[in-house]
Amino acid sequence: MTGTSNVWALMTRNLRQSGILIALVALVAMFSFMHPSFLSPGNLTNIVLQYSYILVLAIGMVIVIIGGHIDLSVGSVVALAGAVSAVLVVQGGHPWWVGVLAATGVGLLVGAWQGFWVAVVGIPAFIVTLAGMLLFRGLTAQVLDNVSLSPFGGTYYNIANGFQNGLLGGYGYDALTLIVFGLAVAGFALVQVRNRRAALRYKQAVEAFPLFILKIVVVGAVVMWFGYQLAVARGLPNVLILLAILIIVYTVVTQRSVFGRHVYAIGGNLPAAQLSGVKVKRVNFLIFVNMGFLSAIAGIVYSSRMNGAQPAAGEMFELDAIAACFIGGAAVTGGVGRVTGAMIGALIMAVMTNGMQLMGVSYSTQQIVKGLVLLLAVAFDVYNKRRAGAR
């Protein structure tokens, strides 16, 4: 019975972890069949550029959700960070890095402000960030004096629109892009091997070795194919380098650090975390400081991509980020979720949006589809929890 239970647990875990990846592959296959240009190098590059800021927000949002909170203000913080940067760089004539530092400082201050009300005063994050959504949107309008500011140009513009191309040569392709993606595949394979060895050491159930090898080969082939498409287009986008750094850093933080373990503990069982000596107020404060920081990074990326700042920038970004996390496997009750899952969830949103736009689907229909996908993702999570409880 124990062996059967282990196999069932392994199958259930693999379904949860791989289901969203299978869904992403199915979406890509469907849209590539329905619109031939979907898999063109230019369109794949555009997907990365157009939705990079949602990916950045999803990294911070999944940590917030794991901790048992929610943040409705990130779209307004994106707008405020971009507005402050534009006032300094576009209107004030300061160097690009002054705008970046100022926007980052604004994000950290916003995070500290909201973290204080949540962690110290004890107001639920939903209320604090709902107030923040209104407050920071109003501040954005005041900072910009209700007008748009553009263009940034120069180095600031290249943050989200520039490419690394030709540094290592290549005939008809960018060699650096292929090398970077090759290293990423090698890193993925190494992590998978280490995780498998650790699971075997602790006598945990693992998939059959041929299936394990097949998974690495398939993932490696898909990643290298994607890298080749970028290499033959415009090369390695600067914003993809930024995303890779953030994903690696925050994967380590959430999975390997004391702070990450404490976030999972608070979201999973708050009373137990308190009894275990976790400094709940400190961790909750840092969760929102980090969310403010990543919102500012997203604001810099978005304003760079748009080459300007607008009072209405960032509207509905919070909903896209939250949806990406839940589609990516985060639990509505907290304590469950991964950065990589949130990234796949965000890519599912990006692929759906891009594919429907290519097909000429109306905006209203796009919103309906996104809403249904989010609802089904959460329903799947609830269904799995009920089955686990029943057993």
What structural class do helix, strand and pairing data support? mainly alpha
| Radius of gyration from CA coordinates | 21 Å
Number of strands: 2
Number of helices: 16
N to C succession of SSEs: HHHHHHHEHHEHHHHHHH
Describe the main β-sheet briefly.
2 strands, antiparallel
Spatial strand arrangement across the major sheet: 1-2
- Please state the average pLDDT score: 88
Unreliable stretches (pLDDT < 50, length at least 5) are 6-11
| Oligomeric organization of the protein chains | single chain
- How many angstroms does the end-to-end distance come to? 13 Å
Task: Explain briefly what this protein structure is.
This protein has 16 helices and 2 strands. With 391 residues, the chain is mostly helical. InterPro entries: ABC_transp_permease.
What can you see in these coordinates?
This protein has 391 residues and is mostly helical. The protein has a domain at 41-165 and 234-316. It has 16 helices and 2 strands. The protein has helices at residues 2-34, 41-50, 52-66, 74-91, 96-121, 125-144, 154-161, 175-201, 209-232, 238-256, 258-268, 270-275, 280-306, 317-327, 339-358, 363-390, and strands at residues 163-164, 236-237. Helix 3 runs antiparallel to helix 15. The chain starts with a helix and ends with a helix. It is a multi-pass membrane protein. The chain crosses the membrane at residues 20-39, 51-70, 77-96, 116-136, 143-159, 171-193, 205-228, 234-253, 283-304. Keywords: Cell inner membrane, Cell membrane, Membrane, Sugar transport, Transmembrane, Transmembrane helix, Transport.
